[in-house]
Design goal:
The chain has 292 residues and is α/β, with parallel strands linked by helices. The protein has one domain. The protein is 28% helix and 25% strand. It has 7 helices and 14 strands. The strands form 2 sheets. Strands 1, 2, 3, 4, 5, 6, 7, 8, 9, 10, 13 and 14 form a 12-stranded mixed β-sheet that branches. A two-stranded antiparallel ribbon has the order 11-12. The longest helix is centred in the first third of the chain and has 19 residues. The chain is globular and about 45 Å long. The two termini are 25 Å apart. This is Glycosyl transferase family 2.
């Protein structure tokens, strides 16, 4: 039997932690969830019974320093987990991985795609509330019954399922020395922009950490306007076909670093890390409705 662990880290983020636990409990089993709690100066309010937890120390309140610190803790945990598990799903608390519901593939089936190079990049997108037609998120329906729109950027097509420990860049968006081959069968929905009021509330608290963090998160708020104002939303499947090809391609071959999207196929731009970046603004197919 294939053994799969799901790993994340959290700091005072009960809303997304609860969603993460419910989702991955259904995907790999609650007994295979591992949560790293960042610091001892706060108390989790979600039910952690039956879940393996550990404590990370050294919280700085500086995004760059804390990213590097968390990566070191997570690297050690992934290495340890792979002694007893076949695969580890390594995510932030607002990132939900799933097989394409249009196939009969299980999470074990898609995890095996990581055997060749140690990981496989996921087809990831930001799930974004469309303020013209979608109301506040509730817990009475699955998320993908309430949200039908998203933004595909290169930042969330990232390595997330591992069969061995690999060196990652800061933020875990790139696996160094590994071809950035993107799976057609593994999808990831990033929830940071799933509800505008929640996003504003979340970052009002987190912006107090430092100015660099605030500047880094500006692009998350730009996604709401981009989706609301877009007049030519693309079908998600069509957009991912373009995105995977451009993401992987370097002069006609697959290199070891992801590539940016081009003006030729992308239907939108968002200000990310100091410059306009091409993105795909998409509508999510009906087959995903009822999930998450």
């Amino acid at each position: 039997m294939t053994r799969i662990a799901a790993l994340t880290h959290v700091r005072e983020d009960a809303f997304f932690t609860d969603i993460w636990i419910r989702h991955y409990s259904g995907l790999v089993g609650r007994e295979n969830l591992h949560i790293m709690l960042d610091g001892t100066d706060w108390t989790p309010t979600v039910d952690l019974s039956g879940i393996s937890t550990s404590i990370m120390t050294g919280f700085k309140g500086d995004q760059n320093k804390d990213d590097r610190r968390v990566m070191k803790f997570e690297d050690r945990m992934v290495e340890k987990l792979l002694e007893t598990y076949d695969y580890v799903i390594r995510t932030d608390a607002d990132e939900l991985v799933m097989p394409d519901p249009g196939t009969n593939l299980t999470i074990a089936d898609v995890a095996r795609e990581s055997d060749e190079f140690g990981t496989r990049y996921v087809s990831g997108l930001d799930l974004v509330q469309n303020m013209t037609c979608e109301g506040p998120l509730t817990n009475t329906q699955p998320i993908l019954s309430q949200r039908r729109y998203g933004v595909i950027s290169k930042w969330y097509m990232k390595p997330m399922i591992f069969s061995r420990l690999l060196p990652l860049n800061q933020g875990s968006h790139i696996a160094r020395g590994v071809p950035p081959i993107v799976s057609e069968n593994i999808f990831m929905f990033h929830l940071t922009a799933v509800d505008k009021a929640l996003t504003e509330k979340r970052y009002a608290w987190r912006h107090g950490i430092n100015d660099d963090f605030q500047k880094h998160q500006v692009h998350h708020f730009a996604k709401f306007d981009a989706i609301e104002q877009c007049e030519n939303l693309m079908d998600m499947d069509e957009a991912f076909r373009y995105a995977r090809e451009e993401f992987q391609d370097r002069n006609g071959r697959i290199g070891n670093r992801p590539q940016n999207f081009s003006d030729r196929t992308a239907n939108g731009k968002i200000w990310i890390n100091g410059e306009d970046r091409n993105v795909y603004l998409v509508e999510i197919p009906k087959r995903f409705e009822g999930f998450l």
